[in-house]
Amino acid sequence: MEFNKNDPMFLRQIIMDHYSEPQHKGLTKKPAVYLIHQVSESCIDDIYLELMIKKDKIISASFDGVGCAISTASTDIMAQELEGKTITGSLEIIDNYLAMIFEQSYDEKKIDDLIAFINIPKQPNRIKCATIGVAGFQTLLLDLLKANDN
Predict the structure, then answer these.
(1) What's the CATH code of the domain at 39?
(2) pLDDT digits (tens, 9 = 90+) for 24-44
(3) What SS3 class is residue 54?
(4) Total number of domains constituting the chain
């Protein structure tokens, strides 16, 4: 989706849409999935993340649990972006998203709808919310990459 990153109301609407109607919420609980639990010490975020991977490709990415608007929306959009990508391609998306969040150099073309969170660095108390699900996906993918190297 192409949208104006300079329109805060439009960005807020993208976030609220993914919060109120997340497309990737709900775990399959199939035996062939990779699962991780993420909990925030500072807010209500308590989520489980799930990845189904076949032949180095993410078949499905999903999550479930309780989260604020920012954590739910960022996790939902990240799940959307990861599906259909390879493990290394997914890690590239995550790296670019985290670079944007932490105000480092990043490739805007690699993060697609995640650009909706471009203003998060202006709200430091929301950084944890915007990264809790993403960090979980990153941990799962890095563990898989390491396991594949062995």
Answers:
(1) 3.90.1010.10
(2) 999 988 888 899 999 998 889
(3) strand
(4) 1
Which is nearest to 76 in space by CA: 128, 130, 31, 125? 130
What is the extent of the structural domain holding 44? 8-149
Evaluate whether 137 touches 82 at the Cβ level (below 8 Å): yes
Mention every residue, 6+ apart, whose C-beta is less than 8 A from residue 121: 100, 101, 102, 103, 127
Span between the terminal Cα atoms of the chain, in Å: 38
Max distance between CA atoms of the chain, in angstroms, equals 47
- 3-state SS, 129-145, equals HHHHHHHHHHHHHHHHH
- 53-106 pLDDT, tens per residue? 998 899 999 999 999 999 999 999 999 999 999 999 999 999 999 999 999 999
Residue 80 lies in a domain: yes
